[in-house]
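ARCHIVE CARD
SHELF: 3
SLOT: left
DATA:
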Amino acid sequence: MKTKLKLSHTSKMPCGSWSLQALDTCPGSRNKDGTIVPVCVKCYARKGYYRMKPTKDLRVYNKQDWKRDDWVSDFVDYLIPYALFRWFDSGDIYTVALGYKILEVCKATPWCKHWIPTKSYKFSKFNHVFDELKALPNVMVRFSSDSMAGEYTEGLHGSTVIPDPDFEIDAFKCKAYTRGHKCGSCTVCWDKSVPVVAYLAQ
């Protein structure tokens, strides 16, 4: 049976992902005064291929589709053959209800490792769902730093962005830039034993 789900398949990653519109569904992308945080100013998901109509339409569709009663069961069925999955190559957990739907999917797919990058940790209403997600052995939730200069808070952030490959930082440096900007066989982002990953600014 054909799935109603619409997944993203970026050339960089070794697996599919599920995405929403950048900024529109990213409450953590803005400061209290409404200005965009540094790392989101030049967000890759606001340029290039992401500006094409099919890409934008997919994300608009997903914003409504997750509210279906059978969305969780459809996702679980889809993930049966997969060992890895990434949530949000664009967009974020913008409502608590979506967070709990994702939690249901992760609980029901223990064979699959889930990577969830997010800035929604800034809002206390998401605390409980993030605590539950982080407690699952197959889920790596990475709270993203706002910095483009490698800054992060130890014990809080799971990722940051660095300006160049030679930047000194006490974190795992993503080596995708050495492989044509592809993950290859690297699965560090899904690895709960790696506290912070530093990505090269794009």
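SLOT: right
DATA:
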Amino acid sequence: MDALARQAISIDVGNRLRQLRESRKISMRTLATMSGLSANALSMIERGKTSPSVSTLYRIADALSVPVTDFFGPDETRKKVVFLKADERTRLSFLRGLWEGLGGEQFAGRAMPFMLTLESGASSGPNSMLHSGHEFVFCLRGQLEYQVEGQVYHLATGDSLLFAAQLKHRWRNPGGTVTNVLIIISDYADGDQPHPHLEKIES
């Protein structure tokens, strides 16, 4: 990861998961049942022994009934204008990748931008994702494979993809170099953060 990413504010996913779970008075066993994940897998995440995939984070967020951006930190007062310096981004690490918030977690409007940095072989995880709103994807560097409802789209530098996010989708970096991707989720209903729903069967 580059120097800028190292300077950004890192999120302790395990600690944040524990905060979200305990604030809702949900036991580890109950969350396991609700999310379809094993209690052991959740315990490993909470103890910082493993990094969850993006699709796993979506699955946990779905079970907790929170937007996935809640993993980036506590709820704050939403703003109509969000100015974010490059070194003020919050970042969340996952296997072979980095997920950076670009202010959507603070914004009062209906847009959620974020940046993905994907090493070779990085993927969203074993499950497809779906949520409300629309998803715009712009490949800034490298290669990206996006699968939407079984249709595979191959993006190279400068290519873009726009689709209704309630369609099942997943992504991966099939190339041998680092990929940088800008993703914007938008146009979800007022009061409805782009709420995640995951396929319950791995595909």
